[in-house]
Amino acid sequence: MRVLGIESSCDETAVAVYDGTRGLLSHRLYSQIAMHQAYGGVVPELASRDHVRRLLPLVREALADAHSDRDSIDGIAYTAGPGLIGALLVGAGFATALGSAWRKPALGIHHLEGHLLAPLLEPKPPAFPFLALLVSGGHTQLVDVAALGDYRIVGETLDDAAGEAFDKTAKLLGLPYPGGAALATLAESGRSGQFAFPRPMLDRPGLDFSFSGLKTAALVALRGRDLQGPVRADIARGFEDAVVETLAEKCRRALVQTGHTRLVIAGGVGANRRLRERLAAVGLNIGADVYFPRTEFCTDNGAMIALAGCLRLSAGMRAGLGMSARANWELGSIGV
Ligand code: KG4
Ligand code: ZN
Predict the structure, then answer these.
(1) What confidence tens digit (pLDDT) does each residue in 27-73 have?
(2) What is the distance in A from the centroid of ligand 1 to the CA of 181?
(3) Residue 279: which domain range?
(4) What is the CA radius of gyration of the chain?
(5) Taking the CB of the first residue and of the last residue of the chain, which one, N or C, has fewer CB atoms within 10 A?
(6) What is the pLDDT of residues 105-114, one digit of tens each?
(7) Do 248 and 139 share a structural domain?
(8) Is residue 122 part of a domain?
(9) How far apart are the CA of 75 and the centre of ligand 2, in A?
């Protein structure tokens, strides 16, 4: 089974070819970040128009890289949601039209299912079942993954997502959008413990998160300070420490509570070096194996969508055939 995967839910146009026997054959990505930076965030209409421009050339390149064509592709997978509706419609329209012309199934994939399956692209993939920490720009969730398509949310953020908190705090620190990675780089030269950041929700039972207070704490820390000195890096470090510690402690509790012995990290914030180190330490400490995608597959990409499509089509899961694009879509409700 060989699947062409298309991701266009936000500001990355990404295409990949995944083969059930040979693994990932090609992947291509065009990031719109430079275009949106002037506005300090993603402009949905500009995003949709750019996906229209980029998609077809990327598909051609990814197919050529994979030495694949209409005859060797068995199905087309595309991100059906959640995401920006205009951006999703570009991928969904393209994939269903191509599927119809090629007489191949076109399957709509949940973006977060793509993220949580991304570690399966690595040489040592996790087996089902596992616990997944999904930390992206729009979501922060702990998911009990029993099997492909069988997802139960056991904890989630009550307000901002972890990536959103990174981006908003980075903006306060004068870093360009999306600031997560830049904040992490700045934090490298900062000192821990110079500013008191809360550890939200750690004093309460349950596995939910809350990150909106952290950007307020950063704002308070910044007030009246000279941003030219080492203070910025110290604030970045204090913020990063707080997010990392909170995520790590909730993962530890979730592993204990669910009894899972495998922890999967996925989504853009999963690229954070300190978070990866900290979660690896949690795993060692409680005897759980921890799995990360390579950093380029933590953020949005086509490979995870092609993989999810391949697994679903191989398992005979055909729900999602017929064009679908949903701005809001609960992961726990997708089924098989
Ligand atoms: O999964 P993703 O590419 O897109 C969504 O589906 O949201 O995640 C993007 C998020 C952004 O908020 C970005 O700032 C954050 O991931 N991010 C990071 C790092 N790299 C990306 N956050 C912290 N540290 C990083 N190294
Ligand atoms: Zn994403």
Answers:
(1) 999 999 999 999 988 999 999 999 999 999 999 999 999 999 999 99
(2) 7
(3) 127-292
(4) 20
(5) C
(6) 999 999 999 9
(7) yes
(8) no
(9) 22
